[in-house]
Each structure stands twice: as structure tokens, then as C-alpha cells.
Amino acid sequence: MMSDKKPFAAHGVIPACLMPFTADLAVDESAYRKHLADVSSVEGISGITINGHAAEVHALIIDEQYRAIVVTKDVLQDQVPTIVGVYTNSSLEAARIAAYAQREGADALLVFPPDFMTLGGYLRPEMIVEHLKRITDASNLPIILFQYPLASNLAYPLPTLLELCRRFPSIVAIKDQCGDGNLHERQIRELKALDRPVNTLTTHSAWLLGSLALGCDGLLSGAGSVIASLQVALYRAVQANDLKTAKAINDRIYPTVRAFYDAPLLDMHNRMKEALVLLGRLDEAHVRPPLMKPGPAEIEKIRGLLAAAGLSAETLYRKVA
User: Fold this and answer.
1) pTM of whole model > 0.90?
2) How far apart are CA 316 and CA 77, in angstroms?
């Protein structure tokens, strides 16, 4: 396959969008279009990721994932790059998603490891090699490879990760959520040292300043669906080696960390939806079971933490000074 699109640059701030639902749990396409328009209006972002964890991709049927690609491209056009999540336990289905994303004009893919590999797939690296081969045979889009937390049993051992990057030139970056600062730094350094350097996009949103300071090339985060302007400001301050400004911005981000990432972690994107309702950016916050809506006390906690971060409907997408 050939493409005449401008090469995708895997760096900077890449928010991962949420997926709004109606009260009867259908996809709310109108609200999704508005959400995409809001996030894409943030000055300084480098792309938008769809069909990821933030979009509750685990609860989206394949047809809904395909429709999300079409709607996203209709809203974004070529103004902001579109990165499409490839989330499935089937390598055959993964290839079909990749091919469909390319046909619809996507700019890159975010490839998740198949969930079933939690049973020891890291001991059989040939499995992920075959999975990626199916995808790269179907599409020549650049790939961001998702490096899962070590605790998930889905993380690629460092030798495997490096070999995958050598074997598949389409891999231009990893989205790193390994959860281990020592490994995180080693991956950043060793990926950069490859003959064909591979970027690191952090998704350690609960310790973003420290992660970026280790040398990440950017970030890819569901929190960007709410605080992309703060993330852009933090990234730029780190790139400029302006620690004083970076610490000041991080002080504003910290309340949102407590709002989104407190235990249980699986509620993080539910909380982001509630935050957007409180900020007047979504009309309603609904999630598909087994996820459940936060209770009134937690919603009030989110309200107070948003205020502590200095966020309001008026400031949410404004450039941070």
C-alpha cells in the first residue's frame, strides 16, 4: 500500500478522546463530534487518539469503532492527525481495523497487546510478532506500540520491545505505561539509541512532570480530553528546561491527578466524563457496564479538585500563560 500523506510525527501532546453515550447507552454521535471539536481546538496538540481506553474501547463493538473513525475524520479533516486504536484479541480483526483506518484517512495506529496474552504471552514473543505482521501487512500506517504496566502481565520485556522496533520499521513510538521509573528511563534511552530511533510518549499521567523530565518525546493521555492545555504548557516548559514554570504548571495539574487517578484506577475515564459535565463541555456522563457512574460524593470531590486546579468552562481550552 502507498500513501501520499505527510509523515506522522510521534511527539508532543496527543489527547485520547472519550466516547459519550446517551442515557440508553447508545453512542452519542452529536456529543462525540462536539468533544472532538473542543479538544482539537487546543493550540499546540500534535494529534488525537480515538478508540483507546479513554473511549471505553473494550465496550465498543467493531462497527462502532469503524464509525468512530469516519466521524473523527469528518470532524478533524487533516487539521489534526488522527491516531486509531487497534484493540482486539484477534490478529485477523486487528489487520482489518488497520486497513480500514488507512482507507478512511487515519494518520497512525495505536496497537494494544491482545488481552489473552496476559496468561504468559511475554514468554512467547513470536505471538506479538505475528500479531504485528498481520497489521503491517494490511497497512503501512505508522505505529505507536502500547507498552502496558508490568503488573498487567502484558508488558513486553525490554529485549522483546527493542527487537520489535528493529523488526517493524512502522513502529515510530511507544506509549509507555510500564509503571516503573527505572525501566521507563532505560526504555527511553535504549529506544533512542537504536539505529532507527523510536520515540517514547508517556502515559504516566499521575507523575507526568517526572516522566517528561526523563526525556520523553511527548505524551499520550486520556487526561488530555480534559486538561490538554495544561499538558501542552507543561510539555513546552520541560522542552525549554524551564523547571520553575514546569513546577508551577504541575501544581495546577496535581489536583486533576487526584480527581482522575485515585483508586480504583478503572474509574479514571468515568471521572473525566464527570469533569467535562461539571465544566460545561458535556451535557451528560454515561458509561457502559460493567463500568459504573461515580456517586454524588465523588462527583463533589471532582468539582472541588477542578476548582483547585483553576479550571472552569471558560479556561479549559484557553492557552495556558
Assistant:
1) yes
2) 23
